[in-house]
Design goal:
It comes from Chitinophaga barathri. The chain is an alpha+beta fold. It contains 4 helices and 6 strands, in the order αββββαββαα. It has one domain: Aspartate Aminotransferase, domain 1, CATH 3.90.1150.30. The protein has a 6-stranded antiparallel sheet with strand order 1-2-3-4-6-5, covered by helices on one side. The termini are far apart.
């Protein structure tokens, strides 16, 4: 996975915007103002993704490249490394799940805006 491919995927999700609220290094992807992915654009070593709490623990136990979310709520966030241990397809699937979890938590009006 390279940075451009990952950015293109994130920005292809409906209503996604990007920004640098934590400095020039940390790229954040948002949907309706709520973040679903964070990564260091300089190092491009890992990404923080929102995750169902039960699934978060399961993924950490199953994959060496998945750890509790760095500087995040460890119950709801995982850090996934870009070291090649996680297939690109799986990384993109988890990114979509992160996005979907955030969308599910939005008010109904905002969810409807994303649909139409």
């Amino acid at each position: 996975m390279n940075l451009d491919k990952y950015m293109q995927y994130c920005l292809s999700l409906p209503g996604t915007e990007e920004g640098f609220p934590f400095g020039e290094q940390t790229l954040v992807f948002y949907v309706k103002g709520k973040l679903f992915a964070l990564l260091d654009v300089d190092a491009f070593e890992s990404v923080n993704l929102k995750c169902d709490p039960d699934e978060a623990v399961e993924l950490r136990e199953r994959y060496e490249g998945v750890t509790p979310g760095y500087h995040m709520n460890k119950k709801h966030w995982n850090t996934v490394t870009f070291d090649g241990s996680i297939p690109d397809k799986l990384l993109l699937e988890w990114t979509r799940k992160s996005y979907d979890l955030v969308v599910a938590g939005l008010p109904k009006k905002l969810r409807e805006e994303l649909k139409g």
